[in-house]
Amino acid sequence: MLAHILFGANTEVGKTIWSTALCYASHYLAHAPVEYIKPVGAGPVEEADYVHLAKFVPCKCTNIHQFEKAMSPHMSEGAMQTTDASIVSALRKHLQASSFKNTFVETAGGVSSPAPSGSLQCDLYRPLRLPVLLIGDSKLGGISTTIAAYEQLKVRGYDISAILMLRDPENAPQYENWKYFSEIWSKSYSCHDKENIKCFTIPSPPALSQDAEADFKAMQKYYSESASVGYDVLKHIEQVQKTRLARLDDMINQTEKHIWYPFTQHTLVNPKEIAVIDSAHGDMYTVFAPNAKRKSEEALADGSKKEGSVAVEENKYKELFDASASWWTQGLGHGDPYLAMSAAYAAGRYGHVLLPNCTNEPALGLAEDLLSTVGKGWANRVYYSDNGATGMEIALKMALKAARIQHQLSGKIEIIGLEGAYHGDTIGTMDACPPNVYNVEVDWYDGRGIWFDSPVVKVSNGEVSVQWEDKSFSFTALDDVYNVSSRVNSHLAKQYASFIGEKVRTAMQQGHQFGALVIEPLVVGAGGMLFVDPLFQRVLVDIAKGRLPESPWYTEAHENKKAGIPVVFDEVFIGLYRLGQLRSADILGVYPDVQVNAKLLTGGLVPLSVTLASEELFEYFLSDKKSDALLHGHSYTAHPVGCHVARQSLKRLDQLNRTAWTENKQRWLEFFGCQNVNGVLSSRNPNAWSVWDPEWVYEVSKLECVESIMALGSLASVVLKAGDHGYQSSAAGQYLSRLREFSTGAEEYGILARPLGNVVYFMTSQITPTHTVKEIQAKIIDVFSQPR
Amino acid sequence: MLAHILFGANTEVGKTIWSTALCYASHYLAHAPVEYIKPVGAGPVEEADYVHLAKFVPCKCTNIHQFEKAMSPHMSEGAMQTTDASIVSALRKHLQASSFKNTFVETAGGVSSPAPSGSLQCDLYRPLRLPVLLIGDSKLGGISTTIAAYEQLKVRGYDISAILMLRDPENAPQYENWKYFSEIWSKSYSCHDKENIKCFTIPSPPALSQDAEADFKAMQKYYSESASVGYDVLKHIEQVQKTRLARLDDMINQTEKHIWYPFTQHTLVNPKEIAVIDSAHGDMYTVFAPNAKRKSEEALADGSKKEGSVAVEENKYKELFDASASWWTQGLGHGDPYLAMSAAYAAGRYGHVLLPNCTNEPALGLAEDLLSTVGKGWANRVYYSDNGATGMEIALKMALKAARIQHQLSGKIEIIGLEGAYHGDTIGTMDACPPNVYNVEVDWYDGRGIWFDSPVVKVSNGEVSVQWEDKSFSFTALDDVYNVSSRVNSHLAKQYASFIGEKVRTAMQQGHQFGALVIEPLVVGAGGMLFVDPLFQRVLVDIAKGRLPESPWYTEAHENKKAGIPVVFDEVFIGLYRLGQLRSADILGVYPDVQVNAKLLTGGLVPLSVTLASEELFEYFLSDKKSDALLHGHSYTAHPVGCHVARQSLKRLDQLNRTAWTENKQRWLEFFGCQNVNGVLSSRNPNAWSVWDPEWVYEVSKLECVESIMALGSLASVVLKAGDHGYQSSAAGQYLSRLREFSTGAEEYGILARPLGNVVYFMTSQITPTHTVKEIQAKIIDVFSQPR
């Protein structure tokens, strides 16, 4: 089965003529069943493209939407009700059920003509990413419009199989644009499909008279004469498709030979479970799934199965929901054309340019944007690097040196951290973590700190509680757990303070010297997605900054920003709305001296990290000697592509946070945020909420195989009951395999989740539709309810 | 002075009409001197656009090239001789000398219509990056062509100030595309200039009769009636420009407040020397230079200075040659539209997608490409990470664990390295280097190895030599130094072997255990751009692999790939043709077990690093336990944008290496590659060559202030005589300031070089034109010849 989409470089360039010619060739020359689909048409039905086509080829013609006026569909009445998703969904189902050898989908107008919703044609159809036949523009200026259309398609990640053009009409100026595309362009620098792309031409159709019968005959003759070129096109696109499929078929094999996966024991990889990601859109991977079962044979168009020349093939492309948000990076969805264009703009304007002793708009602008949001109230400086690990290395270097000077330390300096902490995989950031499975086999690992076991927030068997060692503290309102300011004078806060104070004091008496408090606020991520009691972290910070009498650094001069030791927040994972908040400081009620952000920062496109620091810390590095500076850098420091994309991403994340994303807030308050479901609400602006349904969280927490669950923002984390806890646990395996099966909801997709031992987590993006969240929730309940 | 460039969404959309309307408004309403420039026109002179314009506005009209036929200029005779560079250079000089308040540059055809050379219009004019007025397409389909044109311009890094459109002619179908751009589009997701972009419209011009006099009057009336809209456009673009300049003026100030520069002692930064990089193209930064002197007042168009209403302003944009290749990343030039499109394609097709247990074409394809080139003969696996430092962390983890298992080591494992080594700024990679200025202030630094002082290759006072401690070995042929295979049995090789062997043996007797040899082949980079004698490194590798009797790991079973300890090549800087070779293995004649590449890998766009490894190393990590795997990863591991761009870059670098880039090879052989300049050549395929002229290298080596120089590939490194050697030396300061002055060659650009203490290095890309290399060479000689 071979479906192509026809885009036009402009309107009236011959999309319908070419569609007819191709269908004609398929039917009469290749004797291959063929379908023509016009998802959205404009103009009177009797003039519709498929009516023209049906006159000359006895093939199946399908029309999904027809708008009456011959104008851009977005201007027609009722257009706005026709959503992109509904068009794509209808077309996808139609194609999945089809068994025609060839299918041609004709778009409306040019590549960027608005769809009924106002989206551009090329954006509308992107989720299907069908191979493209680009109908080039033969008119004066058509070289320009054709290349422009081609580039727009490439920016959306389409592959173009061929350019199809009409030759100049006889007795008209001979612009010969087709010659440019046949002979020159595929060798030129601006062509990105040099290996594959071919240009095919047929003459312009004959001029029409007023004699319908004569016109029909002339056109019939025309199509008959063009059929051999049409046949050549069919052969070409078949070959391109064959090559493409052969490659996809071979990719698992080659990957097993050549790739060394991160975080992976290769002997435990099941080749059949390697996902061949052919493309991605929104939250979905489109995977090539040679072994996927075809489910909808009964939905086949009647009779199409009987045609002897076509074998019913399996549908090889399937969708997988990216439930790990591609290692926690995705917030705005895959394949976003706006972000792709932003990346291209910065690449086109700068490429990468040097930062030290220089400046540029993306780097400076992003710094300003961050300091006025994430760093508001405390940070004055942005230090750029490439990923969370390097950002944390910089943070450590900043903090340790500042503490060394401030407290006149010499010799070994350590940090205060948390059990289960993870700050990256460079050896320096590993040293800032307690011994664990990640670093035990690293030869130069040398953990440098003392580590606190964290009290953990969870929902277990329908109850909200904070678990601290063997003690459990119940809460009726989850929101209250995260209303830290109301808890700072609680008995538990006092207990935390004396516990922490004493452990630090004891260590110092034993000769330990501390240079920083380093924590992942709110959630200890790779260490098992533990939701740490925010009050505990608040008290840790207050101890580190000498604000509590229990602190070894206690001072009454609370306004002294240099008091105590520097506090480092690693918000690489949790920051920028992952947990429904811009930053943890607004929940904890305290500021750090250094903070690292990454992951969501660049909208899930390219690596970039920022280390924000206070001016007080910056000043420790000032002197008249170069060697006193922070001599740390990476070649692509503050690369404009990343910085510019980050600015656009932050704007959009903020926008989404203020609008669509938070529709669940009220439901969370109602369910988990008050004394009881029918009680009086304790707050109108919840500290804790999630896109996951609170009732679903409640339900999951009661499942037999589930120990506990917690959800904040886009994250839901489920701890499974398991004998062999920890990172090496295989408890989740069975469940994950079942989640992957392609049978979620009406759209038939699977869920690809990554385990962390016996913890299974699920992340949405900020653009995940509510109905998708509901579908996934239902599937999770279903899978987790089955026996293991 | 305000110059704009007018691009058309298509041909015949009204570029000339709008040009005339704008000039008319400037002249008659704003009373501001205005110039109209048509750099390349097509068609008979009497029908040329400027002839039309001159009829209605008494303003200066400039035409640079006119091709006779009314067709795409690339098809005209003689067109190919009209290079892009010559057009841009002529236009740049003209604009620099101009003092008109408003200038409008009209392009030919649509945004992508081919220029005389065959380049696209939008690529041709990109080096000037003038603000754009996009003339939208009012015809049916014009929404699509206008958005497509807009996106093409954005991909090239242009800023669009406004969209200008003609309204539909009366008595014709009213498509009202202008309404879309006036009312809908600037709020839509696909518009990237939401804040600034406005759409202006004027009516279509009146239909013309055959009566020239009547037509003239009708057009005059038309322009007169359109003048107020033209005036509004002038006000708008003036405002946009004002905002832009105000921001540029403020950027140094804001940068000083908010950015924490890498590798920079902020107290030593001179704000006046901060380069405000507004954009970049090829090897050039376009900087905003408020203090730059205007040199060419005498070249002003006659009389233009006298017009009272215009003050002669300084020309604020200047060019700076990027002589550090933006921290060694650039090989294909800034702002390459092909790479920008490649980045956009991968972003549009995937965004970022998960790697472990998955696969995708960019990640797998790049691995295959690398293994069949850089890794050919030895590597089987590619491990992805984000930058050289993380790539080296991975390399260290691979090598140390392999050695630990192989030699059953326990306790502290160290490496063998070089003095002056630099492998990145993470603490782990710092630990693989001897104590130095970079790591001395890092609290957790702990150098773990023994370090060899390297014999160094240099050209000093016209002589080629290898300097080893206090001994100097003269060579008449530089090429022979790099013909390592001919030297392996030399006396010096024996000396090296016994020296190295003894030092390692002694250390081992003292209890040191070694897990890897870690070197930067050929050039020790950040440590001072030292060109290490390749024979010394060859011997080091042979010792490490147990191939020489002097080695403590000596074994006669040379074919045993696991013999000795793993060898790690850090080719982050020197690899991928930076030194004129794909990889050092071909010069050294030995393979590593692990190699890291980065920097040039992604053509200077985004961070990405690869650690290549042999299958033997990979196998040390296999077991049935997850914890035995290499548990290292970064969120954006193998991000498709980087991988896809890298594939395109590698292809192009290889192509350039086989063609244009190597024209200097023969000259190097003749000068430095034989017994004497007039002697018989020793080789036809030089091991050592550079894009820098050998005679220039010779000349520089004789300058009074120069201690020595060396050049390979695109790198030339000059060691200055200086009292206070090392990284903290300020010897270079004076020279660097002079190099920055905007007065190099005919095109008036400065050179922005970064010092490494008393070492000044210069890098070209692979696309630097020969005349530019010559201009830079001349300026360097000039500056270095002046007293300090």
UniProtKB/TrEMBL annotation, chains A, B:
Protein name per Swiss-Prot or TrEMBL: Adenosylmethionine-8-amino-7-oxononanoate aminotransferase
GO cellular component: mitochondrion
Species, as recorded: Schizosaccharomyces japonicus (strain yFS275 / FY16936) (Fission yeast)
Record keywords: Aminotransferase, Pyridoxal phosphate, Transferase
Alphabetized PANTHER family for the sequence: ADENOSYLMETHIONINE-8-AMINO-7-OXONONANOATE AMINOTRANSFERASE (PTHR42684)
Keyword Endoplasmic reticulum on entry: no
Record's keyword annotation contains Transferase: yes
Gene coding for it: bio3
Gene Ontology MF term list: adenosylmethionine-8-amino-7-oxononanoate transaminase activity; dethiobiotin synthase activity; pyridoxal phosphate binding
InterPro entries, alphabetized: Aminotrans_3 (IPR005814), P-loop_NTPase (IPR027417), PyrdxlP-dep_Trfase (IPR015424), PyrdxlP-dep_Trfase_major (IPR015421), PyrdxlP-dep_Trfase_small (IPR015422)
BP GO terms, sorted: biotin biosynthetic process
